[in-house]
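Workshop exercise sheet. Pairs work together: one partner reads the sequence aloud, the other fills in the structure field after running the prediction. Swap roles for the next sheet.
Pair: D.N. / O.F.
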Amino acid sequence: MFFGTRPALPADAKSPFPFLRRSAWAAALSGGALRLIDYDVAAALSEIYTTQEIASDNVHRLMTGAFSSTATFDPASRTASVRLLWLTMADIESSEAALLDLYRQHLPAIRAAANVRP
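Structure field:
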């Protein structure tokens, strides 16, 4: 479902996967810019970036855990491995769905604060 519904990446993208960046958020935190932003907008951005970090951590856990272990692909442990991979993928899907919901929920307020029309 994800691959069928995600927006196209820029033509010069070097990966088939979107990157979740937080450099603007880190700069706002370290530079004290949040005090200049409406509280509700800052809270929405905080919620989005926190959920984005959870989604990235879930993918990282899969890539450095089950997918990188030869034991996962041992036929003797197939049932346990499939269950582990299914749970991990469900965790990733759940955090991505939560992130999409947050984007939909908060984007109007963020656009309004930035004086950007949809």
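Discussion prompt: Helices lie at 2-5, 23-31, 39-64, 78-113. What would you look at next?
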